[in-house]
DNA sequence: CGAAGTATTGAACATAGTCAATAACAGTGG
DNA sequence: CCACTGTTATTGACTATGTTCAATACTTCG
């Protein structure tokens, strides 16, 4: 007898359950949410500024990001998404999308219709809370990044982003020991930290030289978690992870 | 016969109504929300990192801000609040506060108990949406600030912040003609834009010299809205104001 | 009026950016 | 399996924007 595949909403439910106790009926309803999956290549726009989507996107596999461009074409990446994240949950209540969302690696996406979520919330009003919660954590991460980009020097900035990724990936089981896969180019890291690729490269070298990270392909190995956290002034409070 | 004073929730309701149609019963319930008012001096912390409040704060008069500090004591201001804003609405669902909120000018605050809001939402589930909406707009503003601080040069950054304030203040009726009161020191503007006070001072001078703003005390006069918007690369989409 | 906070100025300096060239790597098809 | 191609990473030299430090003027308010 074949084992049933987990539902597409598996990671989403897992995340919700780390903060909320779901009744078995609520959980079942979430498991049965209609999800339409799509595969996309790296570097593809998933949602664009000005769109008025009727569905939300759930990242099932891969990495994506939110970004905006200045008129001169400078790009700021404002958040990185990992499996289980819902990058455009805001579109449920903000009619016009004011950001761009793009894949950073090959991604598997699950699209959930707004009307299905609205229905879900009508039938189970208690479920509104964890979804609202998710958007509040997103906002918290934006704030921390603002502190990062506005006040920390390059060395700390990069260390901070790596710390955040480690903890978030750990929460969805994507960390093996002290290492994880980070399919992000230095140019993209530069856009995420408000630096130039050249400077990112130099900072990464000094992080390596100081023994805070090892890199192999796009695998990041963290030999000394304590030291990396200190370098990035990292305090995980803002991630609001319950099971630290 | 004396005219009844508007309820403390007046500005909040006004903001909600710019996006949602309230039934008269919903409106009445909102007007009757218990609000405890407090006056605070400039530069006072209202909420601190680590707090676990049982109430939300509604700004009735004055300006406040959200900020965080780095270990070396550098401060990043992440948002400015104007009357009608609810700076810590997030505390409804995030147990531990991960930011500091401080008054920038003398402020009148209204505190609303979480339990009263939860009751409100139980009785009128439809009202969850506008409050969720408010936190989504906050997040949108954080993102825009991240773009501002990460990718724009000083001149545009300051122009952008002024543009944002003008539109938001206009929405609550605090703009007279093309000018408004901005009780924020240059040092605070520096913390909001990730610059030094010295540099802010120089940028303000060049904005004045180019005729984009006039300043008088802490009154800002905007003689050429078009030019200021261009200088700040300002596009109001991210504010999600309905009545533009 | 006097004190404290705020704004302004100048000069030296530094972090990070720009430009440009080269090296390493990953994916492709013969 | 290897040459070919485009992308990504690395390096160096020069430059800029914005910082730091420190001194001076201006406001505001009791």
UniProtKB/TrEMBL annotation, chains A, B:
Signal peptide: none
This protein's UniProt keywords: DNA-binding, Transcription, Transcription regulation
One of the record's GO molecular function terms: DNA binding
Domain (HTH crp-type): residue spans on this chain: 156-226
UniProt-listed GO biological process terms: regulation of DNA-templated transcription
Entries under SUPFAM superfamilies matching the protein: cAMP-binding domain-like (SSF51206), Winged helix' DNA-binding domain (SSF46785)
CDD domains reported for this sequence: CAP_ED
Protein's UniProt name: Crp/Fnr family transcriptional regulator
Source organism per UniProt: Halomonas campaniensis
């Amino acid at each position: 007898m074949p084992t049933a595949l987990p539902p597409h909403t598996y990671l989403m439910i897992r995340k919700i359950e780390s903060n909320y106790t779901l009744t078995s009926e609520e959980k079942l309803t979430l498991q049965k949410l209609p999800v339409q999956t799509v595969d996309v290549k790296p570097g593809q726009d998933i949602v664009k500024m000005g769109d008025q989507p009727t569905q939300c996107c759930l990242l099932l596999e891969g990495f994506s990001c939110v970004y905006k461009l200045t008129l001169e074409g400078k790009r700021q990446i404002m958040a990185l998404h990992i499996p289980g994240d819902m990058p455009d949950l805001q579109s449920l209540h903000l009619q016009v999308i004011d950001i761009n969302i793009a894949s950073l690696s090959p991604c598997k996406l699950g699209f959930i219709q707004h009307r299905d979520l609205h229905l879900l919330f009508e039938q189970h009003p208690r479920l509104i809370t964890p979804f609202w919660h998710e958007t509040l954590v997103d906002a918290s991460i934006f704030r921390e990044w603002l502190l990062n980009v506005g006040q920390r020097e390059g060395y700390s900035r990069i260390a901070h982003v790596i710390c955040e990724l480690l903890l978030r990936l750990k929460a969805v089981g994507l960390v093996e020991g002290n290492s994880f896969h980070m399919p992000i180019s230095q140019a993209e890291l530069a856009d995420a930290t408000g630096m130039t690729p050249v400077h990112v490269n130099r900072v990464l070298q000094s992080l390596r030289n100081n023994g805070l990270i090892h890199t192999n392909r796009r695998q990041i190995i963290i030999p000394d978690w304590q030291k990396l956290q200190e370098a990035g002034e990292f305090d995980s409070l803002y991630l609001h992870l319950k099971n630290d």
